[in-house]
Amino acid sequence: MAEYHINPEKIYYNYQGQFPHLILDAEAAVIPAETEKTHQKLITDTTMRDGAQDPHFALFPVETRLKYYDLLHELDNGTGCIEQVEVFIYQKRDLWALDKLLDRGYEFPQVTTWTRALPKDIRMLVDVSQGRIKETGMLASSSDHHIFDKLGHPSKAEAAERYLASIMTACEYGIRPRVHLEDTTKADIYGFVIPFMQRVLKETNGWAKFRICDTIGWGSPDPNAALPVGVPKLISTLIQETGAELEFHGHNDFGLATANSMAAYRYGCKRVNVAFAGLGERTGNTSLEQIVAGYVRMYGDPGFNLKTLSQIRDLLTAEVIQIPPKQPVIGDVFSTQAGIHQTGMRRQEQAEGGPIYLAFDAVVVGEEAAEHSVIGALSGMDGIVAVLNQQIKVETGQQGRYSTTSRVIKYIYDRIQEAYDGTYDSEHDALVGQRRTFFTPTEIAALAKEGQVSRGHAPVRVDTG
Prior knowledge:
single chain; alpha/beta; TIM Barrel; 8-stranded parallel beta barrel; 14 helices; 12 strands; elongated
């Protein structure tokens, strides 16, 4: 490996607040050989640290943190693949939670912490953890934007020395440093990141680990994307030039956090850092549940208890923040409104080829009865049949037997479309009074009864369809 030195010149990537440009190199990133520093692939969790900084809730309650940790332990299910969680240590509630988390005594996930790059923070960590914390992350902002504009260091060399003082303090206390290279996708890679990493590895005898942070989500998973934003090229280059053990921390500003994280795995990162449901600053961090799903798809299921995912979602929804209904994997992603999709859902129950309009069976993530139709403007008769038959079962205890050939179903369909069509106002040449909400199962059942006896329709028996 060549030895690099810190570039005293400032390197900025300033796009004046506009979308950053993406440059593609002629040569693609190279996948490094597998070593113990790149495999086995592991997951680390920052829900209680970076995820707790989400601007859409004020507090991640301490009791909820403990419940979350218990469920994360259940999700890992003894595999050790969800290796670590990280927490703050700066408030009374943080210290109380830290003590309770450590008292759990779980082997996995291991409890780790996060500190500023200050020796006094490391000494405080030693005092409050009483030797029970064996690894800590520590901030080491790596871009010139942060080194000069945020932290006010006089030079990159001075920043490196200050970071190193905290790193060596941690080593002196037997705490493994995990160096968080904040804002790496805007950094001077050959002029700061690589020479700093080389120096740290030399001073710690190779003990330090590094977290590569796509702090504002500029990263691209394209293997031809140039440094510093090209995640494959960034990870591959850092491994080639330093041989370090790497972890990737992504943000979702351009919707690429999961794609970048999976690319980081492929191009040499041993770990990916996540937060449940993508909680975190702005658009949030890489989502735990999406990485778990990606991990299973790419590397096989090591034995995760995937059903725990829905329990975690319910916990956070009840005690922290409402999880978006369209959140992949854990959201309300097993419902359908469109008629053609509802037809597919009904027919897939006996389909030889498996689910037709579902990416995976709901029971995989713990949803025992999550597949269902909602009745809206685009719903077809199959959806109405599914909802009505289920509602009859709820009301009578007997399974309804309506089919799409029933005149009652046609009656319900027509009334629904009339409601969404509204009424034509000739004076203003507009449709008015259009319904804008879904029909509830109770309303569908009421329309069925109405359709049997009114508006000139012949009665239709419930049990014949």
